[in-house]
Specification:
About 35% of the residues lie in helices and about 20% in strands. By secondary structure, the protein is α/β, with parallel strands linked by helices. The strands form 5 sheets. Strands 1-2-6-5-3-4-7 form a 7-stranded mixed beta sheet, sandwiched between helices.
């Protein structure tokens, strides 16, 4: 069956437009509730959200869907995505739901689902839920006496704060460090500054005044300039910028220079390897991670395992291969010793623990390798996927040969937009740019669109 609802990270779209309507949310709640009803116990689902205005529409719609099929609902309000994954397991819920469109602007929203083990659902389960959504769900409605109930969990914030703090070495503190934390006016606006303060940091919070409209607007991990400026202005030791649902981050060093997910993975992998904590033979990342990371790990006898884009696929490979460090260049860092999904705050604490342990600035701790030149262009298209054309495939193969063994060419369709992403990297910056321009130009010509 063709996937129509679920993309690379749950269901996502413009609020109050298909598929992010109240009607669809009700049906997703019913379908997912039926999918995860197993056994005779009282079934329950945990629902969290970020700070978007449309959360007020999607949350009650999902609640109605779940309760209509006999599932109890636990509401926790605005909380990071990793908190929902953690609490789903901790509370022995049958299902966890996060209402968020991550780093997207406020007008978008999304629905992410977690199984009882706290992991994102597999493709097969998502397809099964899609099939149920299209089915005659009304025949599965609960009897009046078996309807679910909804309640709010008052101590959800405290539970998550303590769980995050427990990932930081118990014999260390952040005293003496001034840290700017940008919460993107999103899900972590309350908990993230509290975690850092309770670990004794001098905290400069920004992006902590959500109004329903300003999530990710000029702030957060995808708009990090202001955070970098504040690091310099306050003479801070580090800056942390989370995205709207706080499952990813970018870091800034004491000079306000950005540190991406590849450098963070390298720093944590080196730290854990030296401490005897790194499991397996390497790190899991996606096809988008820089070749410099692969070479750096190789110099230490480690392997970079690559997956397709999406932290869900990184997590699945980590589980299958017994590895405990993985992530994406964009800042989704998964540390399976501590959680089942990306957690921007937990990843930041591991880097800060290394800063404290080595008593060195972030600029030194986090500069692990020199990235090779890498360029990404997006080509928008209408209608048929241009990658299905023989002439486009021939051009891609020709340019791949042109790069040779010293470079990489990655072409992939976006999972959320009608875009083809063209990425190349290699030691020759001019060649990389030429290859990307040539491939993007051919795709744009046949797609009748442009590149950016």
């Amino acid at each position: 069956m063709e996937r129509k609802l679920f993309g690379t990270d749950g269901i996502r779209g413009a609020a109050n437009c298909w598929p992010m309507t109240a009607e669809v949310a009700v049906r997703v709640g019913m379908a997912a509730g039926l999918q995860f009803q197993r056994g005779d116990h009282r079934h329950r689902v945990l629902i969290g959200k970020d700070t978007r205005l449309s959360g007020y529409m999607i949350e009650p719609a999902l609640t109605a869907g779940f309760t209509s099929v006999g599932m109890d609902v636990i509401l926790v309000g605005p909380m990071p995505t990793p908190a929902i994954a953690m609490l789903t397991r901790s509370l022995r819920a049958d299902l966890g739901v996060m209402i968020s469109a991550s780093h997207n602007p406020f007008a978008d929203n999304g629905i992410k689902l977690f199984g009882p083990d706290g992991y994102k659902l597999s493709d097969d389960i998502e397809l099964a839920i899609e099939a149920r959504v299209r089915d005659d769900l009304e025949t599965h409605l609960a009897a009046p006496a078996e309807l679910g109930r909804a309640l709010r969990l008052d101590d959800a914030h405290g539970r998550y704060i303590e769980a995050v703090k427990s990932t930081f070495p118990s014999d260390r503190r952040l005293s003496g460090l001034k840290i700017v934390i940008d919460c993107a006016n999103g899900a972590a606006y309350s908990v993230a500054p509290d975690v850092l303060w309770e670990l004794e940091a001098d905290v400069v919070p920004i992006g902590v005044s959500p109004d329903g409209f300003n999530i990710n607007r000029g702030c957060g991990s995808t708009h990090s300039d202001y955070m970098c400026e504040q690091v310099v202005a306050h003479g801070a030791d580090a800056g942390i910028a989370l995205d709207g649902d706080a499952d990813r981050l970018v870091l800034a060093d004491e000079g306000g220079r950005l540190v991406d997910g590849d450098q963070l993975m390298a720093a944590i992998a080196d730290y854990w390897r030296e401490a005897g904590r790194l499991r397996g033979d390497g790190v899991v990342a996606t096809v988008m991670s820089n070749l410099g990371l692969e070479r750096h790990l190789g110099d230490s006898g480690l392997t970079l395992h690559r997956t397709k884009v999406g932290d869900r696929y990184v997590s699945e490979h980590m589980r299958a291969s017994g590895l405990n460090v993985g992530g994406e260049q964009s800042g989704h860092i998964i540390l399976s010793d501590f959680g089942t999904t990306g957690d921007g705050l937990v990843a930041a604490l591991q880097v800060l623990a290394l800063v404290v342990a080595e008593n060195r600035p972030v600029s030194e701790v986090c500069h692990r390798f020199q990235p090779v030149p890498q360029l990404l262009k997006n080509v928008r298209y209408d209608g048929a996927n241009p990658l299905e054309r023989d002439d486009v495939a021939a051009e891609i193969e020709s340019q791949r040969r042109r790069l040779g063994n010293g470079g990489r060419l990655v072409i992939r369709p976006s999972g959320t937009e009608p875009l083809i992403r063209v990425m190349a990297e290699g030691d020759d910056d001019r060649l990389v740019r030429t290859v990307v321009d040539d491939v993007a130009g051919v795709i744009a010509a046949v797609a009748g669109a442009g590149s950016r």
